[in-house]
Amino acid sequence: QAYYYVIIIVYIISVLIGLIFMFFIKRLAGCCIWVILIFLVLSMAVGGFILFNKAQSQEKEIDGQSRSSTTKYVSYGLWAGAIIAALMIFCLFRQIQLLVAVLESAAIFVNQEGVSLLAPVLLFFIKVIFTAAWIVSFIYLFSTGTPKLKKKGYPIGGITWDNHHREMVYYHLFGYYWISCFLVSFFEFVMASAVSIWYFLQDRSKSIFGISVFRGLFYHFGSIAFGSLILAVIKFIKAIFDYIHTQLEVLRENGQMQILTKITGCCMDFFERFVKFINNHAYIHIALTGDSFCTSAYNGFCLIMRNGLRFGLSAGILPWFCFLSKVGITTISTCLLYTSPSPRDRQKSRMPSSA
């Protein structure tokens, strides 16, 4: 327990580092984006140069002709990728500048509305409490079945369910997926509504998160519930497929059935991610216009199709930027935790020497 306070202190330091990072991003967002893009082009060019020199050295070996040709082709591919990336950066200069403006606005929002940093933490604790309550209720529901005798070789007995109990278990499982998806969707809507209100509202004295929660509860509760229902149905179908796959011995022994189940799982994953993508933009459109879920999902999808290049560019650059930011903050926090003296070292330093 003596190490807990070190972890808490490092967590607080990580949050402070993130705030400082957002403060600098507000002023250096353009520089960071261009550095990432130039680094991407240079890394491909330098990687191609290194592989080309390696292919030249492999040609001198007796049995290295095939390896050298493969390495050369890879180096040519990297050079072609670097040239294409440089041309795309040159042609998409205005779109990249728009992306920089979006990133700067996001940094300004986080700096002005620091409460937004507590939203993921609050969502995590709410989901933990809900999951714990669901597990307790599931244990009670599981125990309502008919006990059966202990089998030979098993230390405990079992529970058998009739059709009524089995339907209750399915209903309970689907309720877990629906409520968990609803919690995530509600927080997504609150964040989208808070950002839209912050951007268009001139009076900064009002609580934008309070207004957003009120809008979500009393004006758009059904839209959020409907969007999370669609996602919950997909998750429930995936769970059924996984259960069938683990229960049937035929699927594990037949190679063709395994391939079929893998393809089905990939299709379900793709469809789930697509629905999440549509839901996110639907909630943003609902927060901006106040339309229903179906109308907002359709208008959001049409907006993406009309501006596919801008959305694709932001989806390609921003994840890398966020990834490098997370790596940097995590590295600094880990170094601080590693270099900080442990309670055991402090206790040793306080003990008098035997000499």
Draw up the topology in text.
Blueprint: H1 4-59, H2 65-91, H3 93-112, H4 118-142, E1 146-148, E2 158-160, H5 163-200, H6 208-218, H7 221-247, H8 249-253, H9 255-289, H10 293-306, H11 308-339, H12 343-350
Antiparallel strand pairs: 1-2
Helix pairs in contact: 1-2, 1-3, 1-11, 4-5, 5-6, 5-7, 5-9, 7-9, 9-10
Explain what this protein looks like in three dimensions.
The structure is a single chain. With 355 residues, the protein is an all-alpha fold. It contains twelve helices and two strands; from the N terminus they run ααααββαααααααα. The protein has helices spanning 4-59, 65-91, 93-112, 118-142, 163-200, 208-218, 221-247, 249-253, 255-289, 293-306, 308-339, 343-350; strands spanning 146-148, 158-160. The protein has a two-stranded antiparallel ribbon. The longest helix is centred in the first third of the chain and has 56 residues, at 4-59. It starts with a helix and ends in a 5-residue tail after the last helix. The mean pLDDT is 78.
Across the major sheet, the strand order is 1-2
Measure the end-to-end span: 31 Å
What is Rg?
A: 27 Å
User: What structural category characterises the helix and strand content?
Assistant: mainly alpha
Mean pLDDT: 78
What's the total count of β strands?
2
Q: Please give the share of residues in helix.
A: over 70%
Largest sheet: 2 strands, antiparallel
Beta fraction of the residues?
under 5%
What count of helical segments does DSSP give?
Answer: 12
Q: Low-confidence spans: pLDDT under 50, at least 5 residues?
A: none
What series of H and E elements makes up the topology? HHHHEEHHHHHHHH
